[in-house]
Amino acid sequence: MRFKNKTVAITGASRGIGLAIAHAFAREGASIGLCSTQHKAATSLADDLHTTYGIPTYGKGVNVASFDEATAFIGDVCDALGPIHILINNAGITRDNLLLRLSEEDWTSVIDINLKSVFNATKAAIRPMLKQKFGRIITITSVVGLMGNPGQSNYAASKAGIIGFTKSIAKEYGKKNITVNAIAPGFIQTDMTDSLPNDYLDTIITNVPMSRIGTPSDVSNACMFLASDEASYITGQVLSVDGGLYM
């Protein structure tokens, strides 16, 4: 029970990587506050984690791109479970297209949900972390934010922005025993990759030194490490979980 008596807040927790992260921390005894765009999905997952692991939970439907809603969510988690020790910024979407076909709406929605949400939730969570002189902030970026990808200029920009934000906040709050890191997954087996054509996936795999795409647990394991005492002297870093795709 490595995280017993710790409260973890997770955005975008209802499926894929976020779901794996929620289960990983729950197995280790953490109290879990989570959100999803769908209120029913969030509360259902919170109930499931409580039933399965016997831990305190809280779930809520939240538009994390809204400053007010994200701030309220963090406050609600603190009220329900106690001050947040670990924040996992995981919410994200894709709206892929080549630049000349990319609409302003698709640019803005990806930036708001993928990047602005990180500002929203982190700003709200910093205050309780400062009061307790402890905090772990982990944001899920992407290998695309490091290397770019055709047809994903909006997604790449949002994920690259996360990296700059992470390093800046790490420098601001390192003296307060708050570490701030990012994880850059490569291609991970989720709903997003399930929708890709098999021949495209085969092409991706040929470029991965480990010759496979990753699993959500590969990312959740990295997340658990960065939140642990063993990583207490690691901050401002981007940990790639991509099978060697980007070196």
Notes on the protein architecture:
The protein is α/β, with parallel strands linked by helices. It contains nine helices and seven strands, in the order E-H-E-H-E-H-E-H-E-H-H-E-H-H-H-E. A seven-stranded parallel sheet has the order 3-2-1-4-5-6-7, with helices on both faces. Helix 1 crosses helix 9, helix 3 runs parallel beside helix 4 and helix 4 packs parallel to helix 6. The mean pLDDT is 96.
Mean pLDDT: 96
- C-alpha termini separation: 34 Å
Helix content: 40-55%
Number of strands: 7
Topology:
Blueprint: E1 7-10, H1 16-27, E2 31-36, H2 39-53, E3 57-61, H3 67-81, E4 86-89, H4 104-132, E5 135-140, H5 144-147, H6 153-173, E6 178-185, H7 191-194, H8 198-206, H9 216-227, E7 238-241
Parallel strand pairs: 1-2, 1-4, 2-3, 4-5, 5-6, 6-7
Helix pairs in contact: 1-9, 3-4, 4-6
Brief digest:
With 247 residues, the protein is α/β, with parallel strands linked by helices.
Keywords, please?
247 residues; seven-stranded parallel β-sheet; 9 helices; 7 strands
